[in-house]
Design a protein that fits this description.
The complex is a heterodimer of chains A (637) and B (249).
Chain A lengths: L14 H8 L5 H4 L3 E5 L3 H13 L2 E5 L17 E2 L11 H11 L6 H21 L24 E2 L5 H18 L3 E4 L2 E9 L2 E9 L5 E5 L2 E4 L20 H8 L4 E2 L4 E7 L22 E5 L16 E2 L1 H5 L9 H16 L8 E4 L1 H7 L1 H19 L8 E10 L2 E2 L12 E3 L17 H21 L12 H20 L5 H16 L5 H21 L11 H25 L23 H4 L1 E6 L8 E6 L14
Parallel strand pairs in A: 1-2, 1-9, 2-5, 9-17
Antiparallel strand pairs in A: 3-4, 6-7, 7-8, 10-16, 10-18, 11-15, 12-13, 12-14, 14-15, 18-19
Helix pairs in contact in A: 3-6, 3-12, 4-5, 5-12, 10-11, 14-15, 14-16, 15-16
Chain B lengths: L2 E7 L8 E7 L8 H15 L21 E2 L2 E2 L21 E5 L8 E3 L2 E2 L2 H10 L19 H11 L6 H5 L6 H12 L8 H15 L9 H5 L7 H15 L4
Parallel strand pairs in B: 1-5
Antiparallel strand pairs in B: 1-2, 3-4, 3-5, 6-7
Classes of the chains: A alpha+beta (637), B alpha+beta (249).
Chain lengths: 637, 249
């Protein structure tokens, strides 16, 4: 397996500039003859499709939602980082690069991250010009807020709806190209497989979710912008439709899957309230600026929160981390919450949360000020729980939120299958073992607007084949395999619903491959998942048929892929004998319970090769070199 | 809680639909409305009946996928939320609930509660954008925008494209949806060069799609989960009048 990253030589500040000059160009008249298939219409997919069409390529774009505007990027709240230094507080491209490498716990590629920091400047310009209504100062200039993991104020935002506004900007740019006929849009269309001919990605197979029709599309290049896989846990902050299908099916066709065990758990979500729970809702991290986190000292406490005197409360983050207190990074806050809940101090009816208390902030600043800062979040909380956080403390607990792992890509964002590019959350590239807040939007748009449109040209300039091969036997074979799988799902006619199985898989993954992992727990997953998967294929019940709108069938196909993917995720977690970022192995901790990295043996990307469903995958390693940022242990005490 | 549901079931676009009655037992007041439907669907699957098709994705009120008329009101009885944010504690034990899809000829039913809203996308495609080629933007701070204008643009830009405005309107007009985009882009300096052309083309496309005209009924504003103001429609009409006076298109 060829895992050469292709990082250009030279000083880190010059690599991207120089590389852009060295990339081959496609003659404008030839661009018209080249067709690119973009799967996914979130920040990465929509921005890429629009930019490629502007360049003159023929583009087809696919999404499973009813409109490109509904991709899950829309739900991002907080903001987008950029090293503009508009605040004059000492920010720079190099500082953003440094913070991102360190925040990722030294498991990402330096050259990629530096490029990301450089491009962050262009993204804000582009979005402002598109009419994204960023927050502004009274003088009319852009406003910034602070975010975790940084000591400068570099986050641009549009109220609590930054993802929505950035996505609508990209969607509108895409819509213009659709209106011009430069992009052909396929909504309500699910990607089911990539077609590989002579080792090169040559097209895709899709299913029309309204008519059930399986279709083929040939292209000179395929771009996957299909997001992350947090829904392997069933309950996560992701939209219900988010899935691993596109990346997993590409993996089955030969694309290496990198660092699947790097998942991010967000510390402040509303705890689940019953078996019927369908998803978890995130409460912005900004609440930790004024809220104090605590649990009762006594196990099994039954008094109401306000009746428990201070002396009998354990403000455990303030106790363990006197200097950072409630503002420790996401991974640390999450793990400590799990620790106290597992230890029996959990609160709420199900004893599955910790308190986030605004009593002291309200006494200090007044209810009015707190309402101005967090009113909207308090309303959301009250809608869901029926409780008012001004009167009783919020109940919170960590939840799966983002996945840093994804398909392996080189510096050009191309996977190890020539012609198959992967952008946004779907690739593994920039966040290492932990993503900093407000960096997901930055990476999605960097890839789509400013990286892929250049790098894909280098590949397309060398393409020799004609794009008229949907008649090739590989297309017919792939269609047949896809149809057989659909038929098989419909024919099981067992007794259990798809959701029922998905919930069971999610619980297993959450227990043993979630916030905290052990070798024995992971072995348990590796033993149980194949059994569960076998039962799924024997007992699942999918009603209806394959030739109309059938949501159970859609779900069944996605869950079937999660059942295969889950095993790889656990294996990756088991093989990484260290703790870093979102991956915490209980065996690898310091004496006071902090994550213990092993740079000597694990400063590498784990890229897995598929060998068959019931066969062991093969591990390949890409060694990471740190020339500019020195490896250090993070400390927040 | 125990509830009696009357749910619109329709096999496909060309089939006729009808209300079907279901008993929903063991419903917790903590459930969201869509989780209540999940529970009903799990029961249906057990008994071999195809589950009720309904659109949903983020389940936190931002993607705009979900939408159904609950007891005659788009997104249900509570103001300023989508139906995925509606919780069962809003209803009384033993209550009867009627659930139907958006009804508008420009939104044909695909199945049960799912409708085709692609007409909205086509309205945006005709002019709901600012033309700016990737890479050609000036530094963001070279174009200052007064905070008041930026905030007002954000108010209009909050639209999630769910279609509740159309469902609520007696004319099934898409005027609030169209006006929200016209207002958002028209308030910003970057949106000026295409302003008059934009409004003309978008309104013309809404006509082609079969949406009705606006008669200032105001039901759209009441139904909107994002509280988009009907003032946007006044702004749209003003821009449209200017465009026609200047002979745009």
């Amino acid at each position: 397996m060829d895992l050469r990253a292709g990082v250009p030589p030279g000083p880190i500040q010059d690599k991207w500039q120089r590389h852009r000059f060295e990339l081959k160009l496609v003659n404008p008249s030839n661009k018209r003859k080249l067709e690119v298939l973009v799967v996914g219409s979130g920040l990465a997919g929509a921005s890429a499709a629009a930019s490629l069409a502007e360049l003159g390529y023929r583009v087809k774009c696919f999404c499973f939602q009813d409109s490109a505007r509904r991709a899950h990027s829309i739900a991002a709240q907080g903001g987008i980082n950029a090293a503009k230094n508009y605040q004059n507080d000492g920010d720079s491209v190099y500082r953003l690069f440094y913070d991102t490498i360190k925040g990722g716990d030294f498991r990402s590629r330096e050259a990629n991250v530096h490029r990301l920091a450089e491009i962050s400047l262009n993204i804000i310009d582009q979005c402002a010009a598109q009419g994204v209504p960023f927050a502004r100062e009274y003088g009319g200039h852009l406003a910034n807020r602070s975010f975790g993991g940084a000591q400068v104020s570099r986050t641009f935002y549009a109220r609590g709806q930054t993802g929505q506004q950035l996505l609508l900007g990209a969607y509108q740019a895409l819509s213009k190209q659709i209106g011009l006929g430069a992009v052909q849009m396929f909504p309500r269309t699910e990607f089911l497989d990539v077609v590989v001919i002579d080792g090169t990605a040559r097209g895709i197979v899709t299913r029309n979710l309204v008519t059930g029709k399986v279709e083929t599309h040939a292209g000179h290049a395929v771009v996957l912008a299909t997001g992350g896989y947090s829904n392997v846990f069933y309950l996560s902050t992701n939209a219900k439709g988010c899935n691993v299908t596109a990346t997993w099916r590409a993996h089955r066709r030969g694309a290496a899957f990198a660092n699947p065990c790097f998942t991010q758990i967000h510390p402040t979500c509303i705890p689940h309230s019953g078996d019927y729970q369908s998803k978890l809702t995130l409460m912005s991290e900004s609440l930790r600026n004024d809220g104090r986190i605590w649990v009762p000292q006594a196990n099994g406490e039954t008094r109401r929160a306000r009746d428990i005197p201070d002396a009998e409360r354990d403000y455990y983050l303030e106790r363990i981390y006197p200097s950072f207190g409630n503002l420790v990074p996401r991974d640390v806050a999450s793990r400590r919450a799990k620790e106290v809940v597992d230890g029996g101090q959990g609160i709420g009816e199900l004893r599955n949360g910790v308190y986030l208390d605004f009593r002291d902030a309200i006494n200090r600043l007044g209810e009015q000020t707190i309402a101005e800062r967090y009113g909207n979040l308090f309303d959301i909380y009250q809608q869901i729980t029926g409780e008012n956080p001004s009167d009783v403390p919020m109940r919170i607990y960590p939840a799966p939120h983002y996945t840093m792992g994804g398909l392996w890509v080189d510096y050009n964002l191309m996977s190890n299958i020539p012609g198959l590019f992967v952008i946004g959350e779907a690739n593994f590239s920039d966040h290492g073992a932990n993503r900093l807040g407000a960096s997901a939007l930055m990476q999605g748009l960097a890839d789509g607007y400013f990286v892929l449109p250049y790098t894909i040209g280098d590949y397309l300039a060398q393409v020799k084949f004609e794009n008229d091969d949907v008649g090739h036997a590989a297309f017919a074979d792939t269609v047949k395999q896809v149809q057989e799988k659909t038929k098989r799902l419909l024919n099981v006619n067992g007794t259990r619903s798809v959701d029922d199985f998905h919930r069971e898989l999610g619980q297993l993954m959450w227990n043993h491959c979630g916030m905290s992992r052990t070798a024995s727990g992971l072995r348990e997953v590796l033993k149980t998942v194949p059994e569960l998967r076998e039962r799924f294929w024997r007992e699942v019940r999918v009603l209806g048929n394959g030739d109309d709108f059938n949501q159970s069938l859609e779900k069944a196909g996605r869950v079937a892929d999660f059942f295969e993917f889950a095993e790889l995720m656990a294996r990756d977690a088991l093989e990484r004998h260290e703790s870093c970022g979102g991956h915490f192995r209980e065996e690898h901790a310091t004496a006071d319970g902090e994550a213990l990295r092993d740079d000597e043996n694990f400063a590498h990307v784990s890229a897995w090769e598929f060998t068959g469903v019931d066969k062991d995958p093969v591990l390949h390693r890409e060694q990471l070199e740190f020339e500019y940022v020195h490896l250090t242990q993070r400390s927040y005490k | 809680m125990r509830l009696t549901l009357h749910v619109w079931r329709q096999g496909g676009p060309k089939q006729t639909g009808a209300f079907k009655r279901y008993e929903a037992n063991d419903i917790s007041e903590h459930m969201s409305f869509l989780e209540m439907l999940d529970v009903v669907n799990e029961q249906l699957i057990k008994t071999g009946e195809e589950p009720i098709a309904f659109e949903h994705d983020c389940r936190e009120g931002i993607c705009g996928s979900c939408g159904m008329v609950v007891n005659g009101v788009p997104h249900g009885p509570k103001d300023a939320i989508t139906v995925c944010q509606l919780h069962m504690r809003t209803f009384a034990d033993g209550q009867e609930i009627f659930i139907e899809p958006w009804r508008a000829s420009a939104f044909p039913v695909i199945k049960d509660l799912v409708v085709d809203r692609s007409a909205f996308d086509r309205i945006i495609q005709t002019g709901g954008f600012i033309s700016v080629r990737t890479g050609s933007a000036p530094d963001a701070n070279t174009v200052p925008i007064p905070k008041v204008a930026a905030d007002a643009a954000m108010d209009a830009a909050a639209c999630i494209g769910c279609g509740a405005c159309v469902a609520a309107c007696p004319n099934a007009s898409a005027m609030l949806f169209t006006a929200a985009k016209v207002t958002h882009l028209g308030l910003l300096p970057q949106g000026q060069p295409e302003r008059l052309e934009r409004v003309t083309k978008m309104v013309a496309q809404a006509d082609i799609e079969g949406f009705g005209y606006c008669s200032n009924h105001g039901a759209c504003e009441t139904a909107c989960p994002k509280e988009i103001s009907i003032d946007c429609i006044a702004q749209l009409n003003r821009d449209l009048l200017t465009a026609s006076a200047r002979g745009v298109l």
